Every structure is written in C-alpha cells, then in structure tokens.
Recover the amino acids of this structure.
C-alpha cells in the first residue's frame, strides 16, 4: 500500500484535516461565514425548484392514491372532534384549554399586533440528529435571526437561527438545541420545552423543570409563556406522557408537537408583535432580546 | 497562444465526465435535503452524499477521486450540513484510504466498494453521533435505534450509484482505445 500512498494523496488528506479545522473554528467564532452564505445563496434557487417539483409530484400522488388514507383520516378526525366536544362539555378545566384553541385559530384576527411574513420550505436538514429546514426568504424580505415561525393556526414551528439574503434556516422545536419557556394551558404550571433526544422516537418534545405538584393529563395543551422572542399563548404541543425526572423532585412531560411537520410546506414568520417586554424595550430604546430560548448550541 | 486554448476531444470527454460526477453529487444532495429531508425511508433519513463521494473516489483513484471528495465535502459542509467540518475530514480521508486499500490489496470491484461505502457512512455518522453525545444532546440508545439503520438504509443506494459511476467512468474509453 505504501507505493500507492503518493505525495498528492497525502496532500489531499492533509488539506482535508486543515479545512475541517478551519471551518470548525470559523463556524465557532463567526457563526455563518461568508462562504456558507455564498453557497446557500447559490443553492436556494436550485432547492426551491426541486422543492416545487417535489410538491407537484406529491400532490399528484396524493390525488391519485390518497383517497383511502384521506377517508381514514377523516374518520379519525371526526372521532377526535367528538372526543374533544365531549371533554369540553364535561370538564370545566378544559374550557380554558378550549378558549386557548379558539383564540389561536383566530390568531391573525385577534392579534392584530402580529406582523407575518409567509415563506415556503425549500429543503430540510437530512441529519437524524438535527431538525432544521431552509426557507426561500431572508433579509431581503425583512427577516432576522431570532424571529419565530408558526403555522397558519399559530402553532410554534421554530425559530430563525441563520439567515442570508434570500434564505433562512429555521431550527424547529424538535431540535435539542432549542429551549422555549412554556406553561400548561390547563393549570398554568411553567417549564421548559426542548426536543426530546432520549425516547428514540422521532418528532417528540420534552417539557422539563415542571414542579412536582403539577397535574398532567393526556392532551393537556402546552403554550408559550411569552417573552421578547416568543409571543404569549402560541401552542407548542400536547401532553402524551409524563413522569418524574432523574432527580425525583421535578416532573417532565413528553409532548406531541402541535404543528404537523410531516405535511409542512408553508410557514409564517412573526416579524413583529407587541409584548410587555417589547413595549418596555421600545420605551427605553433597547432592542436586545433577553429571552432564554436562544439555541443552546453544541 | 490560441493553440493552447484549443480543447481537444479527449479533454472535452474529461470535462463531460467530471460534470456528470458533479451533477450526480448535486442530485444526491437534492434528494437528501429536499425530497427525503422531511420524509423517512424505512424509518430513517437516508444519507446519499457519502455514497456518491465514496463511489467516485474509489473508481477514480486516491488522487483525482480524493480531490473530488475534498471539494464536494467542502461544498456539502458550506451548504449547511450537520457538523459539516466532520464531513470534510471523514468524507475525504475514508474514501482516499479505501481507494488506496483497493489499489493495494482489494480489487476495484463492487463488493469492496460496498464495504468501503459502509465504512464511510458508519464513520461519518458515528463521529457526528459521538460529538452530539459528548455535548449531551443525544442519548446513547439512539446509536442502535437510529445510527445503524441509517447506515444500512443509505447503503441501499450504493448499487445504483456504483453502476452510474461506472458508466460515467467509461466515458472516453472508446476514444482512448482507438
């Protein structure tokens, strides 16, 4: 093997190690580098074209083959609506939850302080260890890092963590690096929601730091507590399981995300909203976010 | 001067070959990030980019293939890949070493290529997984539930990629044999 191990092969291996070190250091020091921005800017139209073609094919496929699954889904949704209506009639505690739901369904009508910017998803990060996607709008459309992405129903999707002129990377709530201050809609107990990386199930969330006296029930809604980054009462997910954490003094809840990530095509970025902290910040002319929900990073 | 600018038919064929390799890489990248980015295949998200890089590197040799691996993995890193810096090192070094191993010991055939593709996929995913595990953002149990299936499912694309790369590699053979 030694005779095949030429000088050029050694040079390539050495260059690979140097470039790996340089990109890692540059990424750590400067975040998104100009080279990454350039590549993403070039790739975004190509990805947009591919995404558009993929959507058309999916729609055609669903039109042809999706009738039975739609019928089954319709049956399931009808049952689910009946269950929810029954719960609303029988349980006073769930009336509050129902009020939240109705408020969120009329999100844009009721929260006229919200300013939205819609965007289509052009690509997803394909790694099993990360949950981010790229949208086809960036600083040209007035977007900034730290802005929150929601569905048309006001369900939290994630937050913009990287941005370029015509693209932005949204880190979803399912990513383990994102932490959101949240509360249980039914009881008001607060905690922190983050992507779940222990259950091995894709697409689940974990609400931690819940007090031991918190009463958790299946399908309890979890909503944002409100901050300079996240508007109040945006729905994050539903409780599907609960228990005590490793310390035994705090509870955790496993959540099903409210947003349906499997069918997500279009999202809405909240570019501006009025909150108490924002108002205070505007009054004192300080605009730096003070929320604990920035990605923790690795 | 003009004589030097003239591109010979043989050079045209080389340009065509490397353009097709690049298009294959871009196609794999688009399939991975756009088509399968939000969907799973057999329960996992497949990883096609290492498969293409490894196959091209093994067919073209440690030098030319290695340079292709270096440039494409750098592009992959800059396109926003998860732990892209790791990808540059792993997706260059493992295929280059594999290519050298094939030249020296193994034949440059399908099965050695499959084995080295599996090694590349496994090494890349393991290093990324260990980094996440080290920083406490990944549970150790997901090594078995996510990583191993991801490697095996991604390797399913290897026969198709290998055949395509073999076809592209033959471009220019007829001209050179004349």
């Amino acid at each position: 093997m030694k005779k095949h191990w030429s000088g050029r092969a050694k040079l390539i291996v050495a260059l690979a190690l140097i470039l790996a070190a340089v990109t890692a250091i540059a990424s750590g020091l400067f975040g998104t580098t100009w080279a990454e921005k350039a590549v993403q800017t070039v790739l975004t139209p190509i990805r947009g074209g591919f995404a558009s073609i993929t959507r058309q094919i999916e729609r055609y496929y669903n039109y042809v083959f999706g009738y039975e699954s739609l019928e089954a889904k319709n049956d399931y949704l009808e049952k689910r609506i009946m269950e929810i209506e029954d719960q609303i009639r029988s349980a006073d505690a769930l009336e509050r939850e129902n009020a939240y739901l109705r408020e969120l369904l009329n999100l844009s009508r009721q929260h006229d302080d919200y300013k939205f910017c819609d965007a289509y998803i052009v690509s997803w990060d394909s790694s099993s260890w990360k949950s981010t996607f790229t949208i086809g709008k960036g600083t040209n459309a007035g977007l900034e890092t730290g802005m929150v992405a929601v569905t048309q129903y006001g369900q939290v999707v994630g937050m913009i963590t990287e941005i370029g002129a015509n693209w932005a990377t949204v880190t979803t709530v399912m990513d383990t690096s994102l932490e959101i201050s949240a509360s249980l809609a039914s009881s008001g107990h607060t905690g922190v929601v983050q992507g779940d990386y222990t259950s091995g199930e894709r697409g689940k969330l974990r609400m931690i730091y819940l007090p031991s006296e918190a009463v958790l029930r299946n399908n309890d809604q979890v909503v944002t507590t409100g901050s300079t980054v996240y508007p109040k009462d945006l729905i994050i997910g539903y409780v599907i399981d609960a228990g005590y954490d490793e310390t035994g003094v705090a509870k955790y809840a496993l959540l099903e995300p409210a947003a349906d990530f499997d069918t997500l095509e279009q999202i809405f970025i909240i570019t501006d909203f009025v909150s108490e902290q924002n108002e205070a910040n505007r009054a004192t002319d300080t605009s730096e976010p003070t929320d604990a929900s920035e990605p923790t990073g690795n | 001067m003009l004589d030097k600018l003239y591109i010979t038919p043989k050079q045209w064929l080389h340009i065509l070959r490397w353009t097709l390799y690049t298009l294959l890489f871009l196609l794999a990248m688009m399939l991975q990030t756009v088509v399968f980015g939000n969907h799973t295949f057999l329960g996992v998200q497949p990883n096609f980019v290492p498969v293409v890089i490894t196959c091209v590197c093994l067919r073209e040799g440690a030098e030319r293939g290695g340079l292709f691996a270096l440039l494409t993995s750098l592009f992959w890193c800059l396109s926003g890949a998860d732990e892209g810096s790791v990808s540059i090192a792993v997706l260059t070094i493992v295929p280059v070493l594999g290519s050298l191993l094939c030249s020296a010991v193994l034949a440059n055939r399908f099965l050695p290529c499959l084995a080295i593709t599996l090694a590349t996929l496994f090494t890349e995913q393991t290093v990324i997984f260990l980094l996440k595990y080290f920083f406490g953002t990944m549970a150790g149990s997901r090594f078995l539930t996510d990583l191993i299936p991801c490697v095996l499912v991604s390797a399913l694309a290897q026969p198709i990629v290998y055949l395509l790369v073999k076809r592209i590699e033959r471009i220019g053979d007829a001209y050179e044999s004349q």
In short: Chain B is about 75% helix and 0% strand.
